[in-house]
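Might I ask for a little of your time on a matter of protein folding? Here, with my thanks, is the record as I have it:
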Amino acid sequence: MLEEYRIQGRRAAEIAASVEQAVGAGELPPGSPLPPMRELADRLGVNPHTVAAAYRTLRERGVVETAGRRGTRIRPRPATTSRELARVSAPPGVRDVSQGNPDPALLPSLSEAFAAAAAEADARPVLYGESAVDPELARRARAAFDADGVPPGPIAVTSGSLDAVERVLAAHLKSGDAVAVEDPGWAALLDLVPALGLRTVPVRVDEEGPLPASVAQALRGGARAIVVTDRAQNPLGASIGAERAKALRAVLADHPEVLLIEDDHGHAIVDLPLHPLATVARTWALVRSVAKAHGPDLRLAVLTGDAVTVDRLLGRQRLGPGWVSRIQQRAVVHLWERGALRPSVAAAYDRRRAALIAALAERGVPARGRSGMNVWVPVRDETGAVARLLHSGWAVAPGAAFRLNSPPGIRITVSGLTADDVEGIADAVAVALGPAPARRYD
């Protein structure tokens, strides 16, 4: 491919732009090697430091990665190519079970909570210089963390889980550092890591969470951080049990220099207990979003962690948005005071998920989903399965949005499914995947 495309430019910015243009045009596909810096410098007639600066810019933008002896290569999925492009748009008449949204019927009403929060703001406006975190929100969040065995630590509030993860990674890592991520895993995270100029290192996952041997391999290979989903893992629905947590803690204890980020977005929509890993970590953060339980548009997550991590996060936050609206924080407090964290919500998602997995099993289709609101179905031909289901009236999420090296599959969100829906989509999936004897996806 490099014989077909010749990088051009005399300045670092021009060289970087030439590579980015080729990536965008498909002339340098993922995995393509770039020339060694001295070789390219000789070819262009520039100083090697100029090429080094261009490659550094490309790494920071998430376009390339340095792969040891393999040199500098175009990332498997450049940050400019969002995984959202792999989503399926549901045309009129097609049921959309691809988006991973909660059931609106299970979300609490926000009007009363925001009215109460606004009235408090009228009586006592929050002004510059006040705490970024509402004291009552911090108290309640810390009490919930304590009840789940999360180590002591200060509280921060961010604009959702992804904002929290980004700020924690930026607080500790530098361009080119490696981050261990679940594979398959959260699509937004798989986009975020390279966008920050970091390298993704895939970690295998089963229904109990990350496999300890795979985590150990990633950390021995130099990963500086790892992001783990405690419950309702997206897309597999994994939930870390007591034995798996014990094994993972043993691995992490051997690498005290590694940054641990735990994502517990399943809080309040999962009835399985939390088994935090941070008890053995020196540098860590645990994040809880209110999106799945209270509504994605609230854009609020609470975070705790070691004192240095939280201090760095709050310090950088002060130089940007400053804080997450205290009115918004107070509204969440009112939701918690009014019992918005209902066990019946987790039970409803459990019933729907279990019903779909059982219906698929009756038709000879294996599926996975231990917790949360999604079911993962391994497939041989991902594109074909998605297309056939779309033709039969169901829009599912292609596994490509969630995968690095793991086998293909499709994700089905069960949030809005009724009992009749479950039978209908199970029939459609069985037909789309073909005869049962031919189904071998391992």
